[in-house]
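Archive maintenance. Older records in this collection stored only the sequence; we are now back-filling the structure field for every entry so that each record is complete. The fields below show one back-filled record exactly as it appears after the update. Entries are processed alphabetically, and DNA-3-methyladenine glycosylase 2 family protein is next in the queue.

ARCHIVE ENTRY
Title: DNA-3-methyladenine glycosylase 2 family protein
Organism field: Gordonia alkaliphila
Length field: 133
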Amino acid sequence: MERRWRPPEPLDVDATLRVHRHGGRDPAYRRAPDGSVWRASYTPDGPGTVTVVMRAGEVAARAWGPGAGWLLDRFPDSLGAQDDPDSLPIDTPVLAQLAARARGLRIGRSDRVWEALASIFHRGDVLACAVSD
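Back-filled structure field:
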C-alpha cells in the first residue's frame, strides 16, 4: 500500500519522526542511507511497518502488515500536517534563532500514546519519588 502527500511548508521528515525513536539501537526505527525513515508500530489493526521518504517536495509512504492502512491514513498527521508553525509566538531573539534552525521540524501526532508511555517507563525516564513518614 502506498500514499503520497505534499506538505505546504518545508519538512524535515527525519527530525519530525525522530521523536518516536527510543535510543540509537531502537529496532522499530531506522533511517536508511537513501534518507527514508522506517518505523514499526503496533496499531489498533495489528502490527505494521511504514517507510517515509521526501522527494522533490512530496512525501511518499509505503506500509506493510495488518496495520498498513491505519498507518497510511495517519501518516500526514504523523508529519505535522495539523501543525501551524506560524502560531508559535516568537517574541525573543533566542526563539527566532531556534525557529530558523529547525525550519523543517513539525510537531506530529502518532495516536500511539501507549507506545510513547511504555518506552518512557522502559528507559527509566520517570523519576521515582520516595515518600517518608
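Update note: The longest strand covers residues 46-55. The chain has one domain: 2-123.
Entry marked complete.
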